[in-house]
Design brief:
The chain has 471 residues and is an alpha/beta fold. It contains 18 helices and 10 strands. The protein is globular, with a radius of gyration of 22 Å.
Length: 471
């Protein structure tokens, strides 16, 4: 999410002069049984390239090109890291099962999800090194766009999505992502009326009776990075009630629970609001950083809704997992506080920066704290529940307690060079950085991950080992 934006006044002023800036445009199709993809394996990854006993998840934060480049550097480091597992050498980048992303991080996640290793050949030139921000501004003020922007059916986010398709996503939809069977993507935006996270994934689309496979990836990324005022909302039609959607057992259990203070109960309450399409016929989506700038909430929410780590592993088709690695890539900026050196009132830009950065950073801190506390109990919860399950359903429980979970945080605070750390924290949250700045971010991410004690411990405890037999 962008807390500050050097060219924001220019673009806002331009858009104020164009009649079509608040136009509506909806492209999501209703659910159709004929459009359902053919059944896939319960595990959300390709079994021929990934081990069923390893689970690797990434969370890419928001932060414009700063976040996109930082997350890209982590993928580069993972491509250089190998382990011996299940009798074969594996690159860590090939073991990624899931990526949850927000805003700038969504560009990297979506490109990797769609094209895999191709990201290491052309992504930097196509996106990271480009003046994306300048191109969008020039497209907005170009006479060739005025007719569309003034048509009443096209807005600034539509223009951005077309541009992203042109330079990156090639018109691909989520059907293309599913067909590749790569990492499971959770691209996150914010539904502004509810003030809740909206995740572009099959369960969320099932809730609003909309067709997930046909939706363009570029529009999901646009919604994830649509900073209010700078971009228009991305609008979805809510078709809830027109398909055979039934709330799953865990949702019914949460509603029936006597404890109305749980996260699960609150989450299901929000789901029920989506289900009322008469009250809410349209969804207005903005930057995902408004509700979760780290991209960790989908994991925490699913854990809460599933009722525990083993139950979630069973839902994901990885009940026999023996090693879990979660990497949180946090490109969070630090607001400038130079105003504390003067008795002059804050400028408009300083005030906007402060009022957006304070809740954003506080919410990110709370999310990380909750994630760390959750990780403390994951291993004991999973092994206890799995051993009980295996004792009741299998002839042997050998290996049921062989599970280790690792949480790795990659952020600027972990740089040993504090001047470098401060410089990166103060890089602008924009879609236009210099080549040197992009390369510095990539190098920093590789260095931080490679030097991470938790990552090295995961590699050490995983390399050359084979999981104990599952039965």
């Amino acid at each position: 999410m962008a807390a500050t934006h050097p060219k924001l006044p220019v673009l806002v002023m331009v858009c104020a002069l164009i009649a079509g800036c608040t136009a509506k445009y909806t492209v999501n199709e209703p659910y159709s049984p004929a459009a359902e993809p053919q059944s896939a394996p319960s595990k959300t990854v390709a079994s021929d390239t990934r081990s069923d006993t390893l689970l690797v998840g990434l969370a890419f934060s928001g932060g414009g090109t700063r976040a996109a480049a930082f997350s890209y550097g982590v993928l580069e480091a993972m491509a250089d890291s190998t382990i011996q597992w299940d009798g074969r050498e594996r690159r860590m980048v090939d073991e990624i099962d899931a990526i949850s992303s927000v805003s700038g991080g969504s560009f990297t996640a979506a490109y990797f999800g769609l094209f895999g290793d191709r990201i290491f050949d052309d992504y930097a030139d196509k996106f990271l090194y480009q003046d994306v921000e300048g191109d969008l501004i020039r497209s907005t003020v170009s006479p060739t766009s005025w007719g569309k922007l003034g048509s009443g059916k096209y807005n600034r986010s539509d223009l951005a999505a077309e541009y992203y398709d042109e330079i990156l996503f090639e018109g691909k939809t989520f059907a293309d992502l599913l067909a590749r069977n790569g990492p499971k993507l959770s691209i996150n935006a914010t539904e502004i009326a509810l003030g809740e996270q909206f995740t572009f994934d099959p369960p969320q689309f099932a809730l609003i009776c909309s067709d997930y496979p046909s939706y363009p990836v570029s529009r999901a990324v646009t919604a994830s990075s649509a900073v209010p005022m700078l971009f228009s909302s991305v609008i979805l039609h809510n078709y809830a009630g027109t398909c055979p959607f039934v709330f799953p057992p865990w949702a019914k259990a949460a509603i029936a629970s006597a404890d109305k203070t749980t996260r699960a109960y609150n989450l299901v309450q929000q789901m029920e609001k989506y289900a009322d399409s008469e009250e809410m016929p349209y969804l207005h989506l903005y930057d995902g950083g408004l509700t979760d700038n780290l991209g960790v909430r989908p994991f925490l929410n699913r854990l809460a809704l599933s009722g525990g780590s083993y139950q979630l592993a069973k839902v994901m088709g990885v009940a026999d997992v023996h090693r879990m690695l979660v990497i949180v890539v946090n490109a969070q900026s630090e607001m400038s506080t130079q105003f504390k050196q003067t008795d002059l009132d804050l400028t408009l830009g300083q005030a906007v920066d402060a009022t957006s950065s304070i809740p954003l950073n506080s919410y990110s801190f709370d999310s990380l704290t909750l994630l760390r506390r959750t990780f403390d109990g994951i291993a004991s919860d999973l092994t206890k529940s799995r051993c009980e399950d295996w004792a009741a359903t299998r002839e042997s429980t050998a290996g049921c307690d062989d599970f280790e979970a690792y949480l790795v945080e990659v952020d600027f605070n972990q740089l040993t060079d504090k001047k470098q750390s401060q410089m990166m924290k103060h890089l602008p949250t924009s879609f236009s950085l210099s080549v040197d700045e992009v390369d510095s971010l990539r190098t920093a991410a590789r260095q931080i991950l490679t030097d991470s004690p938790a990552f090295q411990e995961f590699l050490r405890r995983t390399d050359k080992q084979s999981p104990l037999p599952a039965n």
